[in-house]
Each structure stands twice: as C-alpha cells, then as structure tokens.
Write a structure and sequence with these properties.
Blueprint lengths: L1 H19 L5 H27 L2 H14 L3 H12 L3 H13 L3 H14 L6 H13 L3 H9 L7 H17 L3 H12 L6 H12 L3 H17 L2 H6 L1 H16 L1
Length: about 250
Amino acid sequence: MHLIGLSLLLQIACAVHCVRNHRNSMWLMVILFFSVLGCLAYAWFEILPAYAGRREVRAVKAAASRKLDPERDIRNAREALETADTAANRIALGDALADAGAWDDAIVHYNQALAKSAGGNDRATKVKLARAELETGQATGARELLESLAPSGSPSENDRTALLLARSLDDLGESEAALALYRDVGERLAGAEAQCREAALLIRLDRHAEAVPVLEEAERRAKRIDRFERSRDAEMYDWAARTLAELRSA
C-alpha cells in the first residue's frame, strides 16, 4: 500500500512538472501508463538535462571527475598541445597544472604562451603568471608584473588583480600597503578572501583586536554565499570561524 501511494505521488509530481514546464504532452501518457518506469524516464530525459547546465551542478561534476581522474585535464591539455603548439593550448595546460597545484610547471607554460601572443601583452595570462609566481614564493616578480599591467575594462577584474598585488605586498613585508589594499578591494569583491587575508596579516602583526571585526565580516559574507562556493573555499572559511572563536574567547 505504501509503495502504491509513493508511486502515485511520484506520478503526480512528474505530471505537474510536465504541465508547468510545457513539456511534450506525450510524456503525460508515459507517466500515467508506465508508472515508476515512466517517471524515471521523464526525469532522465526532461528534468536532469535542465539542471546539468547550472553552475553548481557543473562544479560538482567537475570536482567529482577530478577526484576520480585527477590527471585527466592535464592529460587532455598535453594531447591538445602535441596536436597544436598554440598560445591557447599552452594556457590551457598551464591552467590544468595550476589547478593540480603544479605551479612551477604552470609558470613554464604561461611564459611560453606569452611568448607566442601578440607582443606578449595578454593581460589575462600575465595575471595567471603572477598568481603562479605568488604560489611559488616569487613575490617580487609577481609584484613587478602586476604593477606593469594596464587597467582592465572590467572593474571586477581590476579588483582581483589588486588582491593579488596586495598578497605580493604582504609577502614582501609591506604590511600597511597590503592592509590598505585588502580593505579597499574587500569592499567590492564577493566572498571573503580579502577579509581573511587582512585578518591573518593583522594577527601576524599582533593586532588581534583589529582582526575581530574583519573576521566578523568574513563570517557574515560566508552566510550569504551559496554552499557550493563556500565548500570550494571551505578551508579558508573554517579557519576564519575557528580563529574568530579563539579571539573572542581570549
């Protein structure tokens, strides 16, 4: 009896979805006459494809794919590069290596991509190169590269570049300049990376009281972003929550 009831509810749900979303009316016959099998077929062909294009679903699928085969993107990028040694394929391989944490190798391919680009002035690739240099401890080179860039037509891109510059200043010990830049871009950038990095620097400078409101802002921002974005930077947000709790109890 319970199974019959569940089957009926499933049929009703699929039928309502079909009508509300203006699907082919033939699906109503499939749902009605084939019961659970009809509902499963409807879900497979009509419901799941609609969700497959969503950013969150794409992100989950990509993460699962990387977990199952972490070398796949690198392998595919290398194969493409063997077919055609272009700037685009060099960048794609650099991106795959960067995603895998192979920053030194990524630097090689970003540099080679810039050598192949017109005048070596591909701004986006230079930003990626600067990020890779930061990740490998080359803060001086990253700073010089970032400061040489012409402004982008995208304000958000300029802010992301400024965040990288703030990181380079931070690594080079120019604390006040880094703090000012973290505060400035943190007012506009989504997420809480700028706030977390600002708080971490304040803590290293033994300015714990100043770090508390910054971490509180990071906490507020974490509650406003979607769970997929939050899970992507889970380590950072966990650190912020844990550190805020420690500072409050001190």
